[in-house]
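Email to the structure team, subject: tRNA-2-methylthio-N(6)-dimethylallyladenosine synthase model.

Hi all, the expression group asked for a predicted structure before they design truncation constructs. Nothing fancy, just the tokens so they can compare against earlier work. One-line instruction: predict tRNA-2-methylthio-N(6)-dimethylallyladenosine synthase, return tokens.
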Amino acid sequence: MLKKIFIKTFGCQMNEYDSNRIIDTVKKIGFEKTDNYEDANCYLLNTCHIRDKAKEKVYHEIGRVKKIFRSKKKPIVVVAGCVAQAENQEMLKREPYIDIVIGPQSYHKINQTIQGYIDKKKKQEETEFDTISKFNYLSKIKNKHSKVSSFLTIQEGCDKFCHFCVVPYTRGPEYSRPFDQIINEAKEIIKDGAKEIILLGQNVNAYNYKGGNKEFRLSDLLLELENFKELKRIRYTTSHPKDMTNDLIEIYKVSNKLMPLVHLPVQSGSNKILKLMNRKHTIEEYLKIYKKLKEINSKIEFSSDFIIGYPEENEEDFKYTMELIEKIKFINSYSFIFSPRPGTVAASLELVDAKKSKKRLETIQQKLSQNQIKKNKSLEGKTLNVLVENKMKDGIKLFGRTEYMTSVIFDGNTDNIGKIVQIEITSSNQNSLFGVLKDNYKKKVA
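Reply from the structure team: attached below.
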């Protein structure tokens, strides 16, 4: 009998990749994906521990599931991902409605865990760090979730131990997948229609795999992917400034497919705060990377992440962050008020006054928004290369992205999906560009 699984994914792109691989895996025990949660025999939450109140959001979601299935047969409820890893047995004790807790390095065991629950009706918990077995197992199951723009995890875990971050505790130490394993998966998703691959890792540019007598870095992967004719664009995220090595920077000189947007989280513009965060880089080192890349290609743009109101941040520290934003003019960034994560060094530090933090966040977000709006406004009237990804929900317009990941919405034929087309930009807002296919535009004004 065919069973149905509904997966709700929180957080990062890696979780999205993991959710897709879980779907590929559970097909082997008779489950198929459903987008209608009310039909689910198994309800899985793939959780993220980066944002504030992540744990409570999970329990809130479980409460919602309870209401949905109040008058229906209860599905198997699985909590997966980083919150599952961090809380493990505690979740099973606190919420009896949860049946299975499974961490992100145990997904190769998900079939036996679900089947074990079905057979014995005994709650299951799998949260061991077993990354090698996980990827060896998943490499034998075809990735059937290729899109025009597809994610591909190449590295997991982190050895940096930034004082605010839970990743080393929820994803484990840095692990780089075997080079050939990654290339083989890339071949499959390109064969299935991917025109863009986004390489993923908690520290993606820390990728370092020793195979035989050779050491493979991210730069080697990028060069290898460059050879695939059907692949048009390559990206990678998320990077750490400490791992922005010269061999990686030099790739921007020779690659025709590596996109000119560098997402490089800085977190703060103050060296004092960076040291307190244990970030292992300085602003001077960050600016040196920026300068090197700009000298290679002046069209390269940067995006970043900022934590505002980190313990001991004062007005001078915040001023340095504002100065850095003015200097680099990030075209797209994420900024959040610091919130402590249990188990991290920063969890026990005294918080900056909440009103001050909120005011600083509003100031910085206003500045970042202005940069973004100004950049998008400057593109009006220009013709851009856009990779068309899909049809919008309205069923009329098409959605694509520029080389800088900016969303572009326009009228077009579904035949354009998967192609790079030229779009004349006619208007913009903070987050998106709007335009028309260049050929259509010429016909209209003729």
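Residues 354-378 form the longest helix (25 residues). The chain has 15 helices and 21 strands. Ping us if the truncation boundaries need rechecking.
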